[in-house]
Amino acid sequence: MNVVQRFVFGCLCCLLLANASPLRAADKLPTEEDYYPITPFAIPEGIVLEAGGVELLPDGKLAISTRRGDIYLLDKPFSKTGKDVKFTQFASGLHEVLGIAYRDGWIYATHRPEVSRLKDVDGDGRADVIEAVSDAWGINGDYHEYAFGSKFDKEGNIWVVLCLTGSFGSDSKYRGWCLRITPDGQMIPTTSGIRSPGGIGFNHEGETFYTDNQGPWNGACALKHLRPGKFVGHPGGFKWFDQPEVKAALGTRPKEPDSGSRMMVEAKKIPELEPPACYFPYPKMGKSASGIVCDTTGKFGPFVNQLFVGDQSDSTVMRVYLEKVKGHYQGACFPFRSGIGSGSLGMMMAPNGSMFVGGTNRGWGSRGPKPHSLDRIDWTGKVPFEVHEMHAKPDGFELTFTQPVDRAAVGELKSYKMLTYTYIYQASYGSPEVDATTPTIESAVVAADGKSVRLKINGLQEGHVHELHMEGVKSADGTPLLHKQAYYTLNYLAE
């Protein structure tokens, strides 16, 4: 073989080897935008949206409530560009509206002093009637006394979570509590222990969750299950157990937790204490957890019945998979979508599978550069390669994937790295990661269908976040995971 022949043969070999590789180094790796593009809406000058709540109305318009006390209507919420739209003011003069819902011709608004309902009687697009549904809680003007309200539950109730006065105390009635407001305006004391909510919503079974933020008695931001009669962590509002309606509904107050302890240590001593279903490690998954939506549409990709949670500080949307272990929710959070225009706050999932995210940066600042925003996230129809679910097992975890995997890569122990840690459960502000351990991943067995792997782990830690890195995991066509981290809150060991 002469020099020219050797050169040609070498080039052909290189070409064949390159074509044989499912994912060449020169190929552009997929991004979040390839699966879930964001459409930002053009907000006219003079409108300060700061969207705390979003609701789709029967006429196809989108109602947006604002931190400034306004409610606006958007005429084309599914506009392809977000630019050919019109905002009209439906109401003004409310106070920091952080929850909005529609029912029987009325728009219900949860704001600092009450749940109100509003109606356009004469058809001119503006509210003519505003009625108080419930003002069962107190307000003294403290900057921190926000009120977040849900959509309607199966019984027609609105769930309200009330921020404490400041971060530590409850100077106004029911601050630090979750209340249910019935269709006839009655108040039901429901759950104690709230600190600083960022959002509230339901899972696919209609159970209620809210986000609480790092601070006193909260080592990190978390997603918490609102079970009637339970205590979710912050004892600042315990004084309201003296109220007759609380005594009738819930009985006596829980035992005061010991500051400086650990959440699961105290949960074993205090029967009412419901531990967080999922921590959002600070600052790895953000610094200010906010709105909650659940995909029950089946039109938002492969994550049907999973929860999506905003982070105001990082201007992101996270994904949460939950399961029940020993009667309590726990599970894993994953990164999902970055790039929200401002700080993610109010969120809503439309029946067609579009997710709306309102944003604000006032008071906290945000990674998203805009002072306020409204974005829509849609699924392109392409399925990203992701961890679909993360299940706790007695001796490890089972990971399911959205696509078939590269069996060799997923079965390789070097593809994974795990560490664990927990937080100090204390009256002072927040907590560092403490009690860190490094479990040993002893085996990784890929299922016969190539869509899951069973990780056998020596060193599971009850009450710890299990942080899993999966740098070596690849799909059957050689694509790496779109998001390579998972954070599982293992409150209870599976049996």
Structure description:
It is built from five helices and 33 strands. By secondary structure, it is mostly beta strands. The protein has two domains: 36-377, Neuraminidase; 386-490, Immunoglobulin-like, CATH 2.60.40. The strands form seven sheets. Strands 17, 19, 20, 21, 22, 28, 29, 32 and 33 form a nine-stranded antiparallel beta sheet that branches. Strands 1-25-24-23 form a four-stranded antiparallel beta sheet, with no helix packed on it. It has a four-stranded antiparallel beta sheet with strand order 2-3-4-5, with no helix packed on it.
Keywords:
9-stranded antiparallel sheet; Neuraminidase; 495 residues; globular; Immunoglobulin-like; 4-stranded antiparallel sheet; 5 helices; 38% strand; mainly beta
Secondary-structure topology with pairs:
Layout: H1 3-20, H2 32-35, E1 38-40, E2 51-56, E3 62-66, E4 71-74, E5 87-91, E6 100-103, E7 106-111, E8 114-119, E9 129-134, E10 147-152, E11 158-162, E12 177-181, E13 187-192, E14 197-202, E15 208-212, E16 221-225, H3 244-250, E17 261-262, H4 263-267, E18 278-280, E19 289-294, E20 307-311, E21 316-325, E22 328-337, E23 344-349, E24 355-360, E25 372-377, E26 387-393, E27 396-401, H5 407-410, E28 417-425, E29 433-437, E30 440-446, E31 452-458, E32 464-469, E33 485-490
Antiparallel strand pairs: 1-25, 2-3, 3-4, 4-5, 6-7, 7-8, 8-9, 10-11, 11-12, 12-13, 14-15, 15-16, 16-18, 17-28, 19-20, 20-21, 21-22, 22-33, 23-24, 24-25, 26-27, 27-31, 28-29, 28-32, 30-31, 32-33
Brief summary:
The protein has helices spanning 3-20, 32-35, 244-250, 263-267, 407-410, and strands spanning 38-40, 51-56, 62-66, 71-74, 87-91, 100-103, 106-111, 114-119, 129-134, 147-152, 158-162, 177-181, 187-192, 197-202, 208-212, 221-225, 261-262, 278-280, 289-294, 307-311, 316-325, 328-337, 344-349, 355-360, 372-377, 387-393, 396-401, 417-425, 433-437, 440-446, 452-458, 464-469, 485-490.
